[in-house]
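Before the break, one more example. Copy the sequence into your notebook; we will annotate it together after we see the structure.
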Amino acid sequence: MINILVADMIESHGRIPPINVRTNYALGIATLFPYLQDPCLKNDYIDQYFSMRLGDDVSERFLTKWPSYFKEKVIAASKSLPSSPCVEELQASFDPELADDYGWDSDVAALLLLLHLLPPTS
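Here is what the structure looks like once it is written out:
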């Protein structure tokens, strides 16, 4: 499903879509898959996805290091992103005072910010 959405985005907006288009698609994907918003659920799509794509060993190592290592690096790197309402909303989920206003889980917000940081593929 996600591959279909990405193919549609590229077909509609070109090989390198604007950041606001990528943000809208990322938010749409998170809306379509509500389990992405709660990584503590038993049927968590994130854990299943990483296990299917990377294998159990790599997935386990990545998910073990995610909260203490990778997530912090993504948060730090996201500060260099150009300002936009979507990026600001995702970054606000890391502020404990504002997190309840936006409703994004900080892990999902970090993964969505990672999408902004990744260069488009050729």
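Residues 56-78 form the longest helix (23 residues). The CA atoms of residues 85 and 94 lie 15 Å apart. Try to locate both features in your own notes.
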